[in-house]
């Protein structure tokens, strides 16, 4: 097949050796061989998240959202109350997950594309003593915002509450250290910055909190982390039939990440993002967010004037590039370009050339024509969400 350059935030383009690992031998998940593989992957993920000695990891056959749901549904006890921190689609999704399980929720929301201020979170926790747990999205991919995980984790810990983090789009690239930051529950996935294949996700949580799930009625069945933890940590087997080939691929992907290091991967993604953003700026595109708030692996920007996302996507896809639509109220004004996965600098340059072709093929449009209107001030925040 002709290589299609994926510029969407997962699933990402992967290395040949990761894809080839999928063709490993057929293996029964109840055999000791798979138990050993499961143990190695769990250990690598715990170490990657900075949790060796304090945390444990449960691996699930699911999307990243499946891991987020398992973390939220399992972390909060029957008498718990959640404060959801929301500045984008995925913060709102964590609230919706909690509500779907009947968990009482308090909302802390700011407009999409605005940073969450740890001082404001501290004040809200002081005013709501009934809150037991706080949810946070580290990399809010609806806007490409990188939220202040260390700062927010600090105030949550100081307030004596428990923190549940969606790190689906950040772990493996951005700085994540569950022990140092004081993160109690963290959800991640294999097919974004880990550069593995889709199909596996995981929850890394404090070991004592995982052990405490014993004897507590679980919410749901397949998302009950207590059930998965007992099977994986104690019996050395999965609770249910897993996607065995994706474990082979994830082990290879984790080995590659250990060689590159998280800091090295963040630097590589950052160089690609700088190349992309500089090229977009030269073409007059308004890139969203203050530079200090942008993730290393994703860029959100305005659509070209007069060109809808469907036309833009079709034109780029015909040239071998896949970009990503923005969500909800941003859908008609913005789109997103990811720089995660095995993308190269040459592919970024070729994408910019393809973007030029698509824009030029649209009559009477072009970002340069509206540069003055668009750049009346720094493009810091995207469209606000209704209160």
Automatic annotation (TrEMBL):
Residues carrying N6-(pyridoxal phosphate)lysine: 192
Known cofactor(s): pyridoxal 5'-phosphate
Domain Aminotransferase class V: 28-303
InterPro entries, per the entry: Aminotrans_V_dom, PyrdxlP-dep_Trfase, PyrdxlP-dep_Trfase_major, PyrdxlP-dep_Trfase_small, SP_NH2Trfase/AEP_transaminase
Keyword terms of this UniProt record: Aminotransferase, Pyridoxal phosphate, Pyruvate, Transferase
Segments crossing the lipid bilayer: none
UniProt-annotated binding residues for substrate: 336
Span list, region Disordered: 362-387
Record-level Gene Ontology MF annotations: transaminase activity
Coiled-coil residue spans: none
Pfam families to which the protein is assigned, alphabetical: Aminotran_5
Classification via PANTHER family: 2-AMINOETHYLPHOSPHONATE--PYRUVATE TRANSAMINASE
Name this polypeptide is given: 2-aminoethylphosphonate--pyruvate transaminase
Organism name: Cellulomonas algicola
Gene: phnW
